[in-house]
Amino acid sequence: MCPPAFDPEVDVIIAAYRAEQTIRRAVESARSQTVAPRSIWVVDDGSPEPLEPLLQGSGVVCVRQENGGPGAARNRAIRASRAEWIALLDADDRWEPEKLERQLAALQLCGADVACSDAWVERDDRRLWRFSRGRSIPGRLGVTDVVSIGGFCASSFLLRRRIWEACGGFSERREMIAAEDFDLWLRCAARSPICYVDEPLVTYEDRPTSLCKSAGFAGAVESALSQLLERDRSPEMRQHALRARARLARDQAYDQLRRGSFAEARSSAARSIRYQPSSWASWKMLARAVLRRPPTDPREAMRDS
């Protein structure tokens, strides 16, 4: 159990770039929480058109900076905020009204410093599937769980300020953009279990411009995994990292097949097989690339066997 002095005050941190169409919706979802946040911070990360005029009268604190990536934007707002708990929300995502209430209650029960949850995936205003994609995810996550599961919705995370400080905050290196959150969760999980709430408390907007679809995403994840293996050189962790790399390459193959980039998909699927030769999902993805048949089930890339 958490000590009686458990402080439920939460600051919401929203990193935003080119978010003119979605920022007000994200802010409104934070303002509509059944447990009201102490404050809401929006960091405009160098958008071509400033976001502050769109937020006048909304009660949020809006800060504008030169483009530095999500890690730099989040760190800036976290340093300026004061609440014990920090809740992350991306500008194109939104929360269910009870998101903070559910997670704070779970944190009181499990005594962790970090919580996350499942999320709905939405594309073009159409709800597709849950972020977990049918996987069984334990209620307390360690480092190996974070590596093995891989995909968590950043907008579902609620963390105590002291663990953000102890881990040194988000990486601000340009080569880590798109995986700076994954990198921090790995470092957090090494210090405290992450409490997982098996409810979709967030709606994640799947867009072609999402950072996880950027050219640098795979390299950023590889960098996070390489740094992890420098901290933990055990054979067990190496095997988990190989599976994670296979899953990453398989995800890339899936996206490339959807776009009709069959040659790229063949290369990504073959790389996935090199990392995990026993993965039936990787072999199936390679067959689809060779036969030029895009996958019909979006969950195929997530299956390890």
Describe the structure.
This protein has 305 residues and is an alpha/beta fold. It has 2 domains: 201 residues, Spore Coat Polysaccharide Biosynthesis Protein SpsA, Chain A (Alpha-Beta Complex); 70 residues. 40% of the residues lie in helices and 19% in strands. The chain has 10 helices and 10 strands. Strands 1, 2, 3, 4, 5, 6, 7, 8, 9 and 10 form a 10-stranded mixed β-sheet that branches. Strand 6 and strand 7 form a beta hairpin. The radius of gyration is 19 Å and the shape is globular. The mean pLDDT is 87.
Features:
19% strand; globular; 2 domains; alpha/beta; 305 residues
Describe the structure in brief:
The chain is an alpha/beta fold. 40% of the residues lie in helices and 19% in strands.
What is the tally of beta strands? Answer: 10
Helix percent band: 25-40%
Number of helices: 10
Order of helices and strands: EHEEHEEHEEEHEHHEHHHH
Topology:
Elements: E1 10-16, H1 23-31, E2 39-45, E3 61-65, H2 70-80, E4 85-90, E5 94-95, H3 99-110, E6 114-123, E7 126-130, E8 140-141, H4 143-149, E9 158-160, H5 161-166, H6 180-189, E10 194-205, H7 217-231, H8 235-259, H9 262-275, H10 280-291
Parallel strand pairs: 1-2, 1-4, 2-3, 6-10
Antiparallel strand pairs: 4-9, 5-10, 6-7, 6-9, 8-10
Helix pairs in contact: 4-8, 6-7, 7-8, 8-9, 8-10, 9-10
